[in-house]
Amino acid sequence: LIRMTVYGFTIGFKNFKDYSKRSLWLPELMLKLIFIWPAQDAKYRKLSFTASILCVLFIQWGLLSYSYRYFRDYNQTIISVTVLSPLIQTLFKISMLRYHSVSLQNMIEDIAVKFWPCDFFPKDNNRFKMRYRGGLLAIIVLAMSALIFTLGHSLFPLMTPNRQLPYRSLYPFDCLKSPFYEVIYILHCFVCTYLANLSILGYDFVIISICNNLVTQYIILKKCFMAYGDIEKVKKYNEKFNQLSISPNLGKNKQDENKLFLVRLVKHHQLLTRTAKSTENVVYIIGALQLCTSITGICLSGFMSTRGDVGVMEVIALGIFLIGHLIQLFMYCAVGNELFQESSSLSDNIFASKWYEIEDNRLKKDIIIAMKNAQVPAKITAGKVFPLDYSTCIEVLRLTFSFYTLLSSLIDK
């Protein structure tokens, strides 16, 4: 409990000097604002989850009823399906945050307490600092595009002469008469600009930040393995580990320095493997949903923005919506690709170490086992079928363009 208080659960990740761990401060802030941060009180999380799900389901009910009534009007149908995708993401991502709250809490605690500091090798600290700033810039761009789109989507109906709702809805009662109109309008604005943005972006950013921390740890671990067998470096790094309160101190006993060093590295690799598997269990359902919503959002928003009967304001809004989906898809695939590349090259770094200079044959056998375990790379997938990497990103864009051309030909006919 003392460690949890000190390492970010009360103070916050923004206070960390570690650039990799500090990347968790923004998702922590977002999810705390809607009371779904895994480390918050379970009572608040349960209440917030129930209220959020009911609000989203109420809006989806009205939107689907409207689409069913006017399904022959393709413009209305496509717009309804386009704005439905963020609501579906909100519903599923809030549910996953609730369902995997314990697993996420354990991973966040491990990152805060057990992960090695990114300045373990001081020369690489600037590299991690630039990665942190680049990732933060991409996150801010995505957040701003989502905020601009949702604000425009919420305020645009006020500029029309007739009463309209942000989400075109149909209910058993007349939702355009007072006071139903005002209440439902406020509910739509709340879900669109506040709940959807914070839940979707909060979930995305916490997963991306966890993966970024894993990438940093694999980079440090590979450098440590490269020093294995070099007794001077091993003694130096062992001394560093002894000074770190987050690393298990194996004590100054009669064991060989190389053996102590190897035990530390193997234990840390086991921690990274366990964290990567937990991340995959959290993200694989949302990964499949993300690919589907990206295909739908990019295809339909691109199609509607190229039609001749669409106004300038709608084209701008759909363009921002399209850019947001592209950034969201690219961020998932980029971090998944980087995690796979860094983890898959670990066995090569182990083999490139000076293990052959060690006289103890038992340690040579142990390094073979460590090398064998390192040959299984860490990865995140969509539905445990499609790996989230650059190749999947390209295939999604190709499939999206195919659907775009098919839809254009069908509408023209």
Please name the defining characteristics of this protein:
413 residues, mainly alpha, 14 helices, 2 strands, disordered N terminus, 7tm6_olfct_rcpt, transmembrane helix, receptor, odorant binding, membrane
In short:
The chain is mainly α.
Task: Give a topology summary.
Elements lengths: L1 H8 L9 H4 L2 H9 L8 H28 L4 H26 L1 H13 L11 H31 L24 H47 L4 H13 L13 H49 L6 H33 L1 H6 L9 H14 L6 E2 L3 E2 L2 H23 L1
Main location: membrane
Keywords: Cell membrane, Membrane, Olfaction, Receptor, Sensory transduction, Transducer, Transmembrane, Transmembrane helix
Protein name: Odorant receptor 4
Walk me through this protein's architecture.
It comes from Pyrrhalta maculicollis. InterPro entries: 7tm6_olfct_rcpt (IPR004117). The chain crosses the membrane at residues 47-68, 136-159, 179-200, 282-303, 315-335. The chain is mainly alpha-helical. The protein has one domain (16-245, 254-412). 74% of the residues lie in helices and 1% in strands. It contains 14 helices and 2 strands, in the order H-H-H-H-H-H-H-H-H-H-H-H-H-E-E-H. A hairpin with a 3-residue loop joins strand 1 and strand 2. Helix 8 runs antiparallel to helix 10 and helix 9 (231-243) packs across helix 10 (257-305).
The overall average pLDDT, rounded, is: 86
Helix content: over 70%
Described by strand count, sense and barrel closure, the largest sheet is: 2 strands, antiparallel
Shape: elongated
